[in-house]
Amino acid sequence: MIMKKMNSTLLIGSIALVLAACGNEPASPNPQQLSPQAQEQKGASAGATTTSFQSLFQNSVFLGDSITEGMSFHDVLDEGNVLAGAGKTAEFALKDIDELSRRNPKHIFIQLGSDDILWPTDNPKEYSLKNYAKLIGLIKEKLPQADITLLTVTPVTSEAERQEPRYGKINEYNQGLKELAGKEHVGFIDLSPIFSNGSDLYDSDGIHFKPEYYTRLLDLLKDQVK
């Protein structure tokens, strides 16, 4: 998965991060064709959006794996608002409780499972959700005033699923996650609306995402922190 700090031992081989730009429509100028003034205005607009999100989510922490880590990797949120890493599972995230407590956020968004479903055990879903429940319990104990929201595992492209068939379990895992959220009385957000318009949000591996995905994600979540 995204290699910012270390290679994930759960995936076969290493996945190179390629920040390729989306293909432009024929009638639309590419960035090289924009006038300097237009490029400056476009950059200012993107910067304003990022600044707005950083302010809005300043009391939040996103806990997760390398997909979540993309928020700070792409500078959409500050590193202090992201507690994530490549290969992280619900079990591994249990070790982050002390650091999470130190940051003392008002809102905690958890997005784990993309690595969990690849875990080499007889029932990865059952194993993961058991540790997910432990994680929620510890957060409630250490940060009783914090709001906890679970985010669904994001889909992968058909090519990525062809290469790794276990990604075909994502919908089943997300259903289990929804049931867990209900049982633990925490928030639950289905991220599928982000992908409903068919935009090309994926990076070259079909698993991770370009910066646009993260701005859409935060736009979807902004009402949770108001």
Q: C-alpha Rg, in Å?
A: 18 Å
Count of the separate structural domains: 1
Proportion of helical residues: 40-55%
* Low-pLDDT regions: 1-46
Q: CATH first level: which class? A: Alpha Beta
Key words describing this protein structure:
226 residues; alpha/beta; Rossmann fold; five-stranded parallel beta sheet; 5 strands; 40% helix; 9% strand; disordered N terminus; Ester_Hydrolysis_Enzymes; SGNH_hydro_sf
Describe this structure in words.
The protein has helices at 36-56, 66-73, 90-93, 97-103, 124-142, 158-163, 170-184, 211-221; strands spanning 60-64, 82-84, 107-111, 147-151, 187-189. It has one domain: 3-Layer(aba) Sandwich (Rossmann fold). The protein is built from 8 helices and 5 strands; from the N terminus they run H-E-H-E-H-H-E-H-E-H-H-E-H. It has 226 residues and is of the alpha/beta class. Strands 2-1-3-4-5 form a 5-stranded parallel beta sheet, with helices on both faces. The two termini are 32 Å apart. Helix 5 (124-142) packs parallel to helix 7. Residues 1-46 have low confidence and may be disordered.
